[in-house]
Amino acid sequence: MPAVSGAGSLIRDVRLLDRTMSNQRTKGQRQFADAIGLLLFIVFLPLIIVALTLHLLAGLFLHFAIWCCWCSRGRDVLFVYSDISG
Questions:
Q1: Measured between alpha carbons, how far is 69 from 10 in angstroms, rounded to an integer?
Q2: Fewer CB near the terminus (10 Å): N or C of the chain?
Q3: Residues 6+ apart with CB under 8 A from 25
Q4: How would DSSP label each residue in 19-66?
Q5: What is the pLDDT of residues 9-21, one digit of tens each?
Q6: Is 0.85 topped by the overall pTM?
């Protein structure tokens, strides 16, 4: 069972190294990184909301256009087939 104790020792060493490396940043550096992250979030959130809204509206418009043009002819099924052979 020496391999298990060796593996346990290795895991402890990795955990100790991880804690040591994670504490390398100062409080000011962490606050600066948090401020930059918050700023980017505030800048990109309206863009993401607009993009999602436009994507949903485009999907609804396409659904409505197909429904009006296709189903008004008395057809209930739209079958799309593609025969792509190598």
A1: 67
A2: C
A3: 33
A4: HHHHTTS-HHHHHHHHHHHHHHHHHHHHHHHHHHHHHHHHHHHHHHHH
A5: 767 777 766 665 5
A6: no
